[in-house]
Every structure is written in structure tokens, then in C-alpha cells.
Amino acid sequence: MSKTTSNSIHITKATQSKIDTVNFDDLQFGRVFTDHMFVCDFEDGQWQRPEIKPYGPMTIDPSARVFHYGQAVFEGMKAYKDNDGRVFLFRPDENFQRINKSSARMAIPEFPESYFFEGLETLLKLDSAWIKPGIGNSLYLRPFVIATEPAISASPAVTYRFMIICSPAKSYYSDAVKVIFAQKYSRSADGGVGFAKAAGNYGAQFYPTTLAQKRGYQQIIWTDANTHEYLEEAGTMNIFFRVGDKLITAPNNDRILDGVTRKSIIQLASDMGIACEVRRVSVQEIKDAAKNGELKEIFGAGTAAVVSPISAFEHDGQEYKMAMEDDSYAKIFKSRLLGIQHNEQDDTHGWRHEVV
Amino acid sequence: MSKTTSNSIHITKATQSKIDTVNFDDLQFGRVFTDHMFVCDFEDGQWQRPEIKPYGPMTIDPSARVFHYGQAVFEGMKAYKDNDGRVFLFRPDENFQRINKSSARMAIPEFPESYFFEGLETLLKLDSAWIKPGIGNSLYLRPFVIATEPAISASPAVTYRFMIICSPAKSYYSDAVKVIFAQKYSRSADGGVGFAKAAGNYGAQFYPTTLAQKRGYQQIIWTDANTHEYLEEAGTMNIFFRVGDKLITAPNNDRILDGVTRKSIIQLASDMGIACEVRRVSVQEIKDAAKNGELKEIFGAGTAAVVSPISAFEHDGQEYKMAMEDDSYAKIFKSRLLGIQHNEQDDTHGWRHEVV
Ligand SMILES: Cc1ncc(COP(=O)(O)O)c(C=O)c1O
Ligand SMILES: Cc1ncc(COP(=O)(O)O)c(C=O)c1O
User: Fold this and answer.
1) For residue A262, how far is its CA from the centre of ligand 1 (angstroms)?
2) Is B85's Cβ below 8 Å from some Cβ in A?
3) CB-CB neighbors (< 8 A) of B165 in chain A
4) Sign of the alpha-carbon torsion through B53, B58, B59, B63
5) pLDDT single digits (tens) B91-117
6) Are A142 and B207 in contact (CB < 8 Å)?
7) What is the ipTM score, two decimals?
8) Is B356 helix (H, G, I), strand (E, B) or coil?
């Protein structure tokens, strides 16, 4: 390993790349990691000098608060390569702001903007070979922060670790998914942490989702915890409903993640003259629309899955099938988003961020 | 380090005890750990052979699901020593059942009963010197399970680690605490994971609790997330209200941890002929009782704090002070519980479990 210093980040390069051992045509999401990772510790009240080093296991005390109290947040973003080998991020400022919003809610110190961007860009330059060009290919980036202080009292830690790890990816849900509208379990409450990418929000969904999967549904669309009458979002995607030619999506609140893909689709819809209502949407409204033929599409929107068409939903023991037309909004938005992300279409809103 | 095998647990003893470096008169909760820890990994669909080894840091992949999705649960229990050097646990079957209930909700495989008890008892025998006799002294035991699989897809892991770490303790809140009744933030929702000792439930409370602390209140008493009208529990304690000579505590449900101390106090109250109502208790009722002088006590009940008297509460910007009488129920229950736990009083319900 050779040690060099660049941009104040302390860099230790991997002696040999693992890239030749990876079959890029057969990638399972989130299982293979690139050669390097970014690490920055918070100690003595401040973020210390960041480091990039070979990806690998780390040493941590069993009493670290992250294990006991779930004091941890994360982000999910992607890097894309165009056919000229140029590398782009998509609206990374949104992820930067969101991780700090999540951190604030979890009593974790905010991370400096310059470290976040220098870390990402330096890492991407080192591991650029892992980003394959072509629509559908990307490098999934996972910034996250964990409470490392070795003390099991139930209060905020004084030491933390911020990391970025990178995993080459194809899109997450390759087939259309079937969903259940939640009627018993719930994801978050008003005044809770649902709007944050707090680690515990995700583990809490595994069991109900497993139950849904046993019945043939891959995902749950969460409803409000009080009444289960209003549709909110899926486990890792915001949700859009197309009724007639109009889109509807739930508003942001305490309980819903303010998704970057969601807000981009709302903007693209406006660009294309597609009406999009951001408002509460009830289970009853969607069932009625399904029955009278007005419900044309449901799709999920998120960085991992991009746009994921939903082929059926279940509620009260009844399954409602969707038509899955070829000229769906889901397809239009997906190809527009991928086109912008891969530098194949005009970026009218300045969403692409080139890594140079 | 010498390697021996006992009861199927693989034991590696510490070459030298750290106990002489510890000042038992000045213990901060959860910062000092004993010489050994218990470790058992779940792999290939089953719990592997357990191990006891010197307490120390462990190696884990940065992509381990616990860091990203908070798939983790824990327990809190204590070991006590009487003046003859006999060591006792208090209702450990309750903790065993509860950790598996928490695990089930978090899609974590349940842990075998024999491993749990053999692990605890073997560890306690090895580290028995760390348990000091005398009321107020104890060894806090922290069993916990974390998802270790190195893969960042949002679904249950296939590998886990169950551990027990031990920390010598005095009682947690030494002084009476002041609390705020929650009006904005919330701890859990119906259909959520509030009843489980899931890691993420705790980290989510840190920020609101920090805000309360800035205003001079150490803890929050959570209310129902929907209306904030009903009092539920504190961050690590169940709550009892004494109105006149009657006790009231909230019923268990999806949102509240089914505390061992709480259920023991309900039993002791019945033994002593103290009326205890287990029912919803509203903020308004407690404020009214405070105003008309009927509210005699509020106290928290939990393993760490045992019984913790509350000296004041705040709601709607107004502070209500409690009288803190010498003959309080809080004191009676605390000394009865400690008496049973330390083998100084009759154990009429068979709650003590001797470690032999
Ligand atoms: C709960 C939840 N909702 C929605 C999303 C989609 O957000 P984004 O489009 O920013 O990836 C995600 C994934 O990040 C998520 O975790
Ligand atoms: C949320 C919560 N409530 C109540 C309690 C008290 O439970 P127990 O008496 O079993 O320690 C605890 C602590 O374990 C807790 O974490």
C-alpha cells in the first residue's frame, strides 16, 4: 500500500484491484464493494482528518452505541458514466443536505460539506473503473454515519464514524413488483423519525415485509399509522398514482422520506405538462379508481430502483391488477431520468454534477 | 490465554483481570466492562457454538446490515451478590422471552434458551469478582443481537451475532428526575416496534431528550403519537402515578415495553394491598390531580434505574412540582425490590434465580 496525501484526505491505495474478480453482468444489489472506502471520525468535538483506504472490515467495540441504540443514518446515491468516460452524480447536494437533516434528528453531529464532496469525488476518481457506462449501470454510493463511542448509556455518543462505501449496481427491482397496502403494521409516527434515513426505520420494516412476501407481494405501501386510510410510501421508494392522466403523490411530512427521485419526477411532470397533485391520497380513492378503470398506473420512485412499476396491489384480502401499458408514465420518467443521469439527454435543471 | 471447553461453550480466559484498574466507588453507567464477553454467531441457518473470550473490540464489515438498517435488539438485566457471595439474577426468564419477542419483530432468528442461560451463568462465574455485594451494587448485563451480513440490500440478514457484555453498575439515576410530557415528538406508533427493545427506538429519542435537557428536564414521558393525550412510558422506564393511595400505570400495547420492573411492582402492590389500576392515563387527569393535591407521586420503573422518583413534570410550558414524601411508594417498592434481588428479603414469587 502506498501512502499519499491529496486535498487533505489521507489516501492509502489498495495494492491490487479486486475488479477482475467481479462479474458485472451478474451483480446482486449491495454485495460487492469497490477497492476503497472513505472514513472520517468525529472525536474531541470535531470531524478529524478524512481518510481513504482499502475497503475492508473495521474494528469496533461491542459496546459502541450504534449496536445498542441504532444511532445511525445513511444516504443512497449513484454515480453514472457516459460513453466518453465522464462521471456524474445526480443532485448530490440533496443527499448532502438530507444526511445532515437525518443526523440532526438522530443527535449526530452534521458533516462538513467540503469533506462530503471531496470524499465522494476523490473516491470516485480512485474507483472510476468500477463505474460501467451504459443505461442501467451505476455505482451505488452509501454514505453513512454510526455512533462509535464504547459506552452503553442511552444518550448521544461523543464519537462517530462517517463512511462512504461503493457498490456497483444494476437497477434494484428488475421486474414489476406487487405490493400490499398496510393495514396492521406501520412504518412511522408523527413526531418520529420517518422523514430521516435513520437505520432503525429500515430494520423495523423487515418483518412485515417478510410476511407480505410469503403471500406473494414484494413490498408494502405504508399507510398512516393512525387510520391506515392514507397511502404514504414504500420501504425504499416514494409512490406515485396515475389516475386518468393525472399523477398523485403524498406530501412530505414527519413520516415520509423527502425523496430526490420523487421531487425530480414532480419537476419533470411539470416540464412535460403532466398534472401532478401533491396531496393526501386515500386507499378508498385508489380502490375506487381501480374499480372504475381510472387507475392507470402505480409506480415507486427511488435512487436504487429508479422508477419501479407496480403490477398489482392488495387491500382487505382483495388483489387489484394494473394494466401495465407500454406508454406508461413510469417508462417515460424512467428513460428521462436515466437519460439525464447518463448524460444522454439535456439537463435543463442543472441536476448533473460532473466529477472531474 | 488458556483454552478450555465447558458445557459446549468454547472458553478463552483473559490472561489477566482488569479489575484492579477499576474504581468501584466511581462508576459511570455502562463505560467499564468485565474481563469476558459471550459471543455466538448465527450462520448457515443456525446458531453456532458459543464462545466466551476476553472482552475487546471485534472486526466487522462496514456493510454489515446493523449499521445501515438498525437490525438489532438488546436486553438489560442485572446480577446481584449477597453478603455470602451468592450470585442472583432477577426473573431472567422474562428477559429471555423478551429478547426473542424483540427479535421476532425485527426479523432476527430467535436465540436458544439453553445457550442464553449457559452463556449468562458461565460468564457470571468467570467474572464473579466484578459483582460487588451490597444494596445498590450490581453487574449490569447486556445481551444483544446484531445483523452482521456484509450486504446493504434492505432485507433481513442471513448472519447475526448474539453477545453478552457486562458492566459493573450503581443505580442509573441517582437523583430524582424532572420530566417533560411529550407534546411534539413521539416514540412509537401502533403497528410499529415500540414494544420491542429494538436499537432504533432508543437513538430516535436522543434528540428530543437533548432538547428537554437543555430546558432542565432529564427525561421525557412519551405520550401516544396520535393525540399526545395519554401518558405511556419514559425512555428506559415504565411510569407509575400515585393518585391518592392508588397507583395507575399505562397498559402494555404495541408501543410500550413490557417492563420486568413494572410487572414486579404491579405484583408487589397487590401483595401489599395497594390498589393498582392498569389503564390509559391522560395528561389531563394527572394535571387535575396535581392541581387538587391528589397526585402524590410519579416514579419510573426499570432495571437500570430500579425505581426512580420524579420530582416535577412540565406540560404546556407549566411546571408541576411533586411533594417527595419520605414514606413514598417509590421508596417502599425500591427497597422491597432491592431486598429480594440481593437475597435480603423473602422471595415469595420465586423471582430470584441463583447462579451456581
Ligand atoms: C423510505 C424511503 N422512501 C423513499 C426513498 C427514495 O428516495 P430517493 O429518491 O432520494 O432515493 C428512499 C430511498 O432512498 C427511502 O429509503
Ligand atoms: C423503553 C423502556 N421502557 C421500560 C423499561 C423498563 O423495563 P425493565 O423493567 O424490564 O428493565 C426499559 C428498560 O429496559 C425500556 O427500555
Assistant:
1) 8
2) no
3) 62-63, 152
4) positive
5) 999 999 999 999 999 999 999 999 999
6) no
7) 0.96
8) coil
Q: For the domain that residue A336 is a member of, what is the CATH number?
A: 3.20.10.10
Total domain count, chain B: 2
Closest ligand, as measured to the CA of A193 = 1
The verdict on a CB contact (< 8 Å) between A225 and B182 is no
How would residue B2 be classed by pLDDT, with cut points 50, 70 and 90?
very low
Name the B residues in 257-296 with CB < 8 Å from any A CB: none
CB-based contact, A22 to chain B, within 8 Å: no
Give the model's confidence band at B170: pLDDT under 50 very low, under 70 low, under 90 confident, else very high. Answer: confident
Nearest by CB to A185, from B60, B152, B191: name it: B191
Model confidence at B175, pLDDT cuts 50, 70, 90, reads confident
Residue B223, C-alpha cell as written in the block? 405520550
- Asked if residue A349 is part of any domain, the answer here is no
Task: With respect to residue B256, please indicate whether it lies within any of the assigned structural domains.
Answer: yes
pLDDT digits (tens, 9 = 90+) for A15-65: 999 999 999 999 999 999 999 999 999 999 999 999 999 999 999 999 999
> What is the per-residue pLDDT for B172?
55
Nearest CA among B243, B250, B246, B323 for reference residue B285: B243
In degrees and rounded to multiples of 5, residue A89 shows phi and psi of -105, 160
Closest by CA position to B62, among listed A184, A165, A77: A165
Domain identity same for B116 and B159: yes
Residue A212 near residue A219, CB atoms below 8 Å: yes
Domain with residue B81: its CATH number is 3.30.470.10
B42 with B63, same domain? yes
C-alpha cell at B329: 411508594
Per-residue pLDDT tens digits for B291-303? 999 999 999 999 9
Paired with A220 in beta bridges are A180
Separation of alpha carbons B160 and A206, rounded Å: 15
pLDDT of residue B49: 97
Shared domain for B226 and B141, answered yes or no, is no
- Please give the residue range of the domain that contains residue A74: 2-169
- Using the mean position of ligand 2's atoms as its centre, give its distance from the Cα of residue A123 in Å: 43
Same domain? For B17 and B60 the reply is yes
Cβ atoms of A156 and A181 within 8 Å: the answer is: no
Distance A307 CA to ligand 2 centre (A): 42
Question: Distance from A254 to chain B by nearest Cα, in Å?
Answer: 10
Residue of chain B whose alpha carbon sits nearest to that of A187: B192
CB B160 within 8 A of CB B108: yes
Helix (H) or strand (E) holding B213: helix B199-214
Cβ–Cβ below 8 Å for A155 and B225: no
Tell me, yes or no, whether B181 and B325 share the same domain: yes
Q: Measured between alpha carbons, how far is A297 from A247 in angstroms, rounded to an integer? A: 9
> Nearest C-alpha of chain A: how many angstroms from B331?
24
- Å from CA of B37 to ligand 1 middle: 38
- Taking only the tens place, the pLDDT of each residue in A259-314 is 999 999 999 999 999 999 999 999 999 999 999 999 999 999 999 889 999 999 99
Same domain, B55 and B126: yes
Look at the pTM and tell me if it is higher than 0.90. Answer: yes
pLDDT tens readout for residues B183-241: 999 999 999 999 999 999 999 999 999 999 999 999 999 999 999 999 999 999 999 99
Count interface pairs A-B at CB distance under 8 A: 237
**Residue A3: pLDDT band with limits 50, 70, 90:** very low
The C-alpha atoms of residue A229 and residue A282 are separated, in whole angstroms, by: 6
B168 to chain A, any CB pair closer than 8 A? The answer is no
Best interface-test mutation with A: which of B67, B139, B163, B201 has the largest number of A CBs within 10 A? B67
pLDDT band at B89 (very low <50, low <70, confident <90, very high): very high
The model's confidence at residue A4, banded by pLDDT at 50, 70 and 90, is very low
